[in-house]
Design brief:
single chain, about 260 residues, mainly alpha, 8 helices
Length: about 260
């Protein structure tokens, strides 16, 4: 129980890296309700040349933000941490007795997840291309912000994988043990697919606030998370934390760096 509690606390701190930044950004928007657009970033934050520097600045804020944790962050972090703890406690049962072990079924779900994540990775490039050739600054900006969120997501999820070293469901009868050297750099926690899908989806949903767009991108992102579990590639907790981290990253990037009013 001590190790479980320590793990949940570590996850909470890692997720708070993103969550506290989102809360701070929302607070800034609330303090300036009538601020005209452009609202936040200078032009260098939404250009191809400025993208690497934008990622570096994001990472600095992500990994130093635990020092800026606020009490109100616990309103969402406490339930998420509790769900993570319950998930870790039930992951073995879920993957060993609930999720099918039929190779054909698992393979089909893995294929679906790979197709969907390919779409989420391609979406920023497609939006940037449309924006560039059709002189649509909104689409162009969304493409750049999506790319920034994806790069941020890769850095964060790889960092977490190197910290937690969790075994994949296929190993050790789905025990899902943490800090196992046998897990290697391709460890199970968190799900890379979930982080990337939800970071890309969050940027698109924040930039284009049509209910149909939001339902569409978040449904597809949910499909990515679900099929990673049904494919026996990840435990439910891996995709829960990966989805939350991805959404927070994408939401943060969109809030911090967009210049055009959402939905236009």
């Amino acid at each position: 129980m001590k190790s479980l509690g320590g793990l949940v606390l570590s996850i909470a701190v890692g997720l708070m890296c993103c969550g506290s930044m989102v809360a701070q950004t929302d607070g800034r928007d609330a303090a300036l309700p009538n601020a005209p657009t452009p609202q936040v970033a200078s032009s260098e934050n939404v250009t191809v040349v400025g993208l690497p520097m934008g990622v570096l600045k994001d990472q600095k804020k992500i990994w130093t933000s635990p020092a800026r944790i606020r009490t109100k962050d616990l309103l969402w972090l406490a339930p998420l941490s509790a769900a993570t703890g319950v998930g870790i406690a039930t992951d073995h049962h879920t993957m060993s007795t609930v999720v099918s072990h039929d190779p054909s079924f698992n393979s089909e779900n893995v294929n679906v997840s790979n197709v969907l994540i390919g779409g989420f990775i391609a979406a920023p490039a497609a939006l940037f291309g449309v924006g560039h050739f059709e002189h649509n600054e909104k689409a162009r900006e969304t493409g750049l912000l999506g790319a920034e969120a994806l790069i941020d997501g890769v850095v964060v999820e790889q960092g977490m994988k190197l910290v937690f070293w969790r075994e994949r469901p296929a190993l050790d009868t789905s025990r899902g043990l943490f800090w196992r050297s046998g897990a290697g750099p391709d460890s199970s926690f968190p799900s890379s697919h979930a982080v990337l899908a939800w970071s890309s989806a969050a940027v698109i949903a924040d930039q284009y606030r049509s209910p149909w767009v939001r339902v569409g991108v978040y449904s597809l992102a949910t499909g990515v998370s679900l099929t990673r579990v049904l494919g026996q590639e990840h435990f439910p907790t891996d995709v829960l934390v990966g989805s939350a981290a991805g959404w927070l990253l994408g939401h943060y990037v969109a809030k911090m760096h967009h210049r055009h009013e959402a939905g236009r």
